[in-house]
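Key result, reporting period 2: structure in, sequence out.
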């Protein structure tokens, strides 16, 4: 049986080659699963992934709930869920490859607050688009950016990456 870090690396190869996952997805899963691997090897030394139990997952979730980000803030529930989603995906991969481990469907995700979308009224959008001072070059640029965002539905990150 391969060690956990090797299995995780094989999983990333699977995501890249067979699942054709995006580089961002692989990057995020790498972060989440490296955190799990470090926790698992320190909390449960000398225990293979085949021995993973629901109780172990509960302890991992407690670890995540107490974990802080780089700003000293506790991880939000939705972020904690990302770690668990990556773990479940990894466990599905293991089972698919005939490695006996905890069935991922046994790991429930906690309910999180729903993020309701807020929309601007037509008048609010018009006011916002008309705010830049178009007598100046910066104002023309800002107005073009706002009109592009609102007329195309681009995300700001997509707009920033435009050449």
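The corresponding designed sequence is given below.
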């Amino acid at each position: 049986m391969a060690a956990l870090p090797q299995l995780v690396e094989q999983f990333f190869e699977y995501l890249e080659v067979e699942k054709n996952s995006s580089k961002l997805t692989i990057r995020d899963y790498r972060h989440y699963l490296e955190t799990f691997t470090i926790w698992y090897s320190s909390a449960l030394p000398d225990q293979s992934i085949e021995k993973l139990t629901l109780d172990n997952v509960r302890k991992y979730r407690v670890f995540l709930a107490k974990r802080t980000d780089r700003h000293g803030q506790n991880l939000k529930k939705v972020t904690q869920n990302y770690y668990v989603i990556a773990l479940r995906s990894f466990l599905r991969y293991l089972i698919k490859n005939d490695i006996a481990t905890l069935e991922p469907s046994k790991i429930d995700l906690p309910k999180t607050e729903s993020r309701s979308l807020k929309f601007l009224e037509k008048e609010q959008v018009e006011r916002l688009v008309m705010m830049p001072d178009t007598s100046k070059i910066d104002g023309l640029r800002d107005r073009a950016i706002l009109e592009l965002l609102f007329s195309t539905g681009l995300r700001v990150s997509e707009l920033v990456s435009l050449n």
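Residues 92 and 104 are 6 Å apart (CA to CA). The first helix runs from residue 4 to 17. This case is discussed further under Risks and Mitigation.
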